[in-house]
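Quick start: read one record
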Amino acid sequence: MNDIDTRSEGFQRVSAALAALAHPHPPQWLAVSARTAQEAADALGVTLGQIAKSVVFRRKADDTAVLVITSGDKRVDESKLKSLTGALGRADADFVKARTGFSIGGVSPAGFAPADGGAPPQLFIDRELFRFDVIWAAAGHPHGVFRLSPDELARLTGAPVIDVVQA
């Protein structure tokens, strides 16, 4: 890891959160950007589905962020998600940063820091991730990732596992 690059506040926050949770795999800093699931898969030499991509929505009723963690090769079915959350809207880059503390391309499932000190996003894990023994999630920056299993993801986040992707 390059010490200059890993000074990213989001990356450091995720590193600290994972250490506090005794996660055995510290975040890694990639030499190339992993802003998209495909970029991450290419950089890590894994299948697209092994990338635990973070998709953020804006719940219309109360402006809460809703974060779905799903396989990089799947698309979230908003109608399935709405049955659990109520009406949803698009989350732009400013909303994502304000509600999670991370920029798009680096939204991690751990280490949230909402700008207003409010509640972290409502989290859901899509069951499609459980097709894999090893998955990779963003670590607070487009160059940061960390390794885990789907079971570890569920344990680290406490998020329910649901079926929320398109057929």
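DSSP finds five helices and eight strands in the chain.
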